[in-house]
Write a structure and sequence with these properties.
The complex is a heterodimer of chains A (127) and B (141). Chain A is mainly α. Chain A has three helices and two strands, in the order H-E-H-E-H. The longest helix of chain B has 33 residues, at 105-137. Classes of the chains: A mainly alpha (127), B alpha+beta (141). Chain A binds chain B through residues 15, 20, 22-24, 26-27, 29-37, 40-42, 69-72, 75, 92, 96, 99, 103, 106-107, 110, 113-114, 117-118, 121, and chain B through 9-10, 13-14, 16-17, 21, 53-55, 62-69, 114-115, 118, 121-122, 125, 128-129, 132, 135-136, 139-140.
Chain lengths: 127, 141
Amino acid sequence: MQKIANSLDFYASALELRSKRNNILASNIANAATPHFKARDFEFSDALRRVDGAGPLRTTNSQHIATGEIGSGTLGYRQSLNPSFDGNTVELGVEQMEFSENVIRYQTSLTFLNNRISGLKSAIRGE
Amino acid sequence: MNSSNNINNVFDIAGRAMASQMVRLNTIASNLANAQSISSSREEAYRALRPVFETKYAADAEKTGMSTLDTNSIVQIDREPEKIHMPDHPKADDRGFIYVAAVEPEEEMVDMLDANRQYQNNIEVVTTMRALMMRTINMGQ
């Protein structure tokens, strides 16, 4: 069972990170008209490397540091190309592009995951 | 505008942002409806209403990065109504002046376009995320 989980793990964590990033980008778009709001984001590849390299660590004590979470240090602020007058750093064009790219990449991970699952299924059936 | 409930998913984010943009559209509608209204004193004259937006962060925003938009309050802008000398007008004061609402229709129209676009952007986000969720639910079939 562990090996089946291992073969799915990578895409599962990629999917989870993509979903978290979608929520952050949705927050940026929601606050596109709020004065003084600063757009947030995180570097996907760094976050994925951290999750993937973490191994099967579990937090068993409340003082343990959870791995695979986007902690406070990794969540950054976006540098805006054209700073706006009211202190808002959301640029709708940029956010929309990032959002569409992230959605496509989410779907890609999902497709890979689906292919893995159907591959395993046909192996189990022995067809 | 309930401050106690937390932000958990994209429906909270976009839903509350859309509600706030709707408040903005409502104030614009009120302003345009009152654009030519006339009063007999400076104090009574209509002044344009504006919502004050504020970012509402999720309880664990530093971890999840989630935040949405809330309407903090609605204020009247500090602008003087136009004073016109028109002694024949039924609403004229004892010196023959009437006061026209302090609303700039052009400004309201521009604001309306922006609010409309923000609303559409949020709908777009929800539609996309809903489709993604449906595909995720059907995973492995």
